[in-house]
């Protein structure tokens, strides 16, 4: 027997189960449409292979030993797997079963990810979603390494390896403490107004998409704000603003965050739909369930 090879065969297991259920070698042989001597040899070979007795032979038949009773439970479980394996494999091949490893940014969990989860639950109930929260660059690394299969990311570099689709757009809005001066202007604040106050912004390494978006917006307005913090996640930026440490430019979807001291204001002069969210996946992902999910969302 080579390494990894089973010490027994399915035919031997079927013979064992038949004898166990019938309690008699002769009746088991008739059930299997074979003669008794070959069946007896099958069971003997099985006992020899596993190293313990499965039956106590008596004049009236065969009774399971304690070890045989345990072995019977495991044999039945094995046959259940054997019987269901083709159907399970067919479902995986058709994309109606299996799993999808999804990466997502914190804010996408408030918008697109929720829709994906609802669609999968309703239309692909046999597919498990394995979720991992990551910033965009970590998702792109994970996609290339095969650690996730699809990511909800802010920007996708041109690549022959990755495919992508725009799934959502937002506008930049102002997040400010409820009693801040910018909330009492009587009009939508301009970037020049915002630049006169402390601005909480994004980490250039961990949240480079939003960092560049904010820097470009102020540069286009020809003003230089006072940056007081550099943070990697939008929801953390909102929490810092809620604590009164400044104001921030955030995607409009962040308005779903209900924080007691936080208000969101439109910004005069900011173009709409400037914040993009993309779904990205490997061109050759090999997961039928992912293909089905992308079709449905």
UniProtKB/TrEMBL annotation:
<keyword id="KW-0238">DNA-binding</keyword>
<keyword id="KW-0805">Transcription regulation</keyword>
<feature type="domain" description="HTH lysR-type">
    <location>
        <begin position="8"/>
        <end position="65"/>
    </location>
</feature>
<dbReference type="GO" id="GO:0003700">
    <property type="term" value="F:DNA-binding transcription factor activity"/>
</dbReference>
<dbReference type="InterPro" id="IPR000847">
    <property type="entry name" value="LysR_HTH_N"/>
</dbReference>
<keyword id="KW-0804">Transcription</keyword>
<dbReference type="GO" id="GO:0032993">
    <property type="term" value="C:protein-DNA complex"/>
</dbReference>
<dbReference type="InterPro" id="IPR036390">
    <property type="entry name" value="WH_DNA-bd_sf"/>
</dbReference>
<protein>
    <submittedName>
        <fullName>LysR family transcriptional regulator</fullName>
    </submittedName>
</protein>
<dbReference type="InterPro" id="IPR036388">
    <property type="entry name" value="WH-like_DNA-bd_sf"/>
</dbReference>
<comment type="similarity">
    <text>Belongs to the LysR transcriptional regulatory family.</text>
</comment>
<dbReference type="Pfam" id="PF03466">
    <property type="entry name" value="LysR_substrate"/>
</dbReference>
<dbReference type="GO" id="GO:0003677">
    <property type="term" value="F:DNA binding"/>
</dbReference>
<dbReference type="InterPro" id="IPR005119">
    <property type="entry name" value="LysR_subst-bd"/>
</dbReference>
<dbReference type="Pfam" id="PF00126">
    <property type="entry name" value="HTH_1"/>
</dbReference>
């Amino acid at each position: 027997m080579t390494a990894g090879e089973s010490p027994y065969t399915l035919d031997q297991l079927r013979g064992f189960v038949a004898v166990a259920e019938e309690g008699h070698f002769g009746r088991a042989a008739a059930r299997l449409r074979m003669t008794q001597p070959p069946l007896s040899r099958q069971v003997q070979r099985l006992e020899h292979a596993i190293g313990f007795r499965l039956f106590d032979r008596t004049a009236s038949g065969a009774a399971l030993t304690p070890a045989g009773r345990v072995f019977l439970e495991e044999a039945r479980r094995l046959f259940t797997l054997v019987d269901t394996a083709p159907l399970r494999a067919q479902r995986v091949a058709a994309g109606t079963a299996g799993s999808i490893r999804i990466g997502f940014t914190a804010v996408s969990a408030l918008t697109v990810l929720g829709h994906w989860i609802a669609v999968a639950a309703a239309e692909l109930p046999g597919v498990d979603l394995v979720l991992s929260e990551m910033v965009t660059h970590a998702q792109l690394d994970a996609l290339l390494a095969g650690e996730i299969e699809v990511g909800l990311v802010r920007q996708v570099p041109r690549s022959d390896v990755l495919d992508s689709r725009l799934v959502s757009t937002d506008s930049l809005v102002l997040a400010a403490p409820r009693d801040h001066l910018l909330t009492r202007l009587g009009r939508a604040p301009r970037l020049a107004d915002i630049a006169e106050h402390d601005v909480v912004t994004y980490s250039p390494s961990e949240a480079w998409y939003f960092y560049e978006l904010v820097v470009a917006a102020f540069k286009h307005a020809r003003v230089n704000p006072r940056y007081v913090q550099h943070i990697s996640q939008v929801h953390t930026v909102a929490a810092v603003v809620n604590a009164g440490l400044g104001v921030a430019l955030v995607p409009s979807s962040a308005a779903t965050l209900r924080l007691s001291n936080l208000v969101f204001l439109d910004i005069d002069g900011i173009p709409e739909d400037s914040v993009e969210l993309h779904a990205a996946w490997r061109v050759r992902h090999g997961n039928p369930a992912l293909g089905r999910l992308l079709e449905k969302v």
